């Protein structure tokens, strides 16, 4: 049995820069495919690429889509989301994701601590 096309779509898509239009086409293709949009791999790729490009518009659109799709993120996906917000200098949103994340792992703590220190807000650790 062949795997769902959605499992391979993000990898091919993110060989290039994410734009809001490409993100929109990903969601359209994913919604019309046989596989569910709620793939851990899909959202982790999206958030990682948005973080590397510092593309806040696409990242927030993906976050909104994740919430409205009913996908319950794994710790890995939540860490990718937090990292995207940290890279886009939105520590408040990263902190909200962190506060709602249970359980947290070492990566979760490292993303938040590194983000706080990178922005010079060392008092935010306490």
TrEMBL record:
It comes from the Eukaryota. One of its GO terms (biological process) is RNA modification. InterPro entries: PPR_At4g14850-like_plant, TPR-like_helical_dom_sf. One of its GO terms (molecular function) is RNA binding. PANTHER family: PENTATRICOPEPTIDE REPEAT-CONTAINING PROTEIN. This is Pentatricopeptide repeat-containing protein. The lineage of its organism: Eukaryota, Viridiplantae, Streptophyta, Embryophyta, Tracheophyta.
């Amino acid at each position: 049995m062949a795997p769902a096309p959605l499992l391979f779509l993000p990898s091919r898509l993110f060989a290039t820069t994410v734009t809001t239009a490409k993100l929109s086409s990903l969601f359209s293709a994913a919604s019309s495919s046989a596989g569910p949009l709620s793939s851990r791999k899909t959202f982790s790729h999206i958030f990682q690429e948005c973080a590397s490009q510092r593309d806040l518009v696409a990242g927030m659109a993906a976050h909104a889509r994740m919430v409205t799709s009913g996908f319950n993120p794994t710790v890995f996906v939540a860490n990718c989301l937090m990292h995207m917000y940290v890279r886009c200098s939105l520590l408040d949103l990263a902190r909200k994701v962190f506060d709602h994340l249970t359980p947290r792992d070492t990566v979760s703590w490292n993303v938040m601590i590194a983000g706080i220190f990178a922005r010079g807000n060392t008092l935010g650790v306490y």
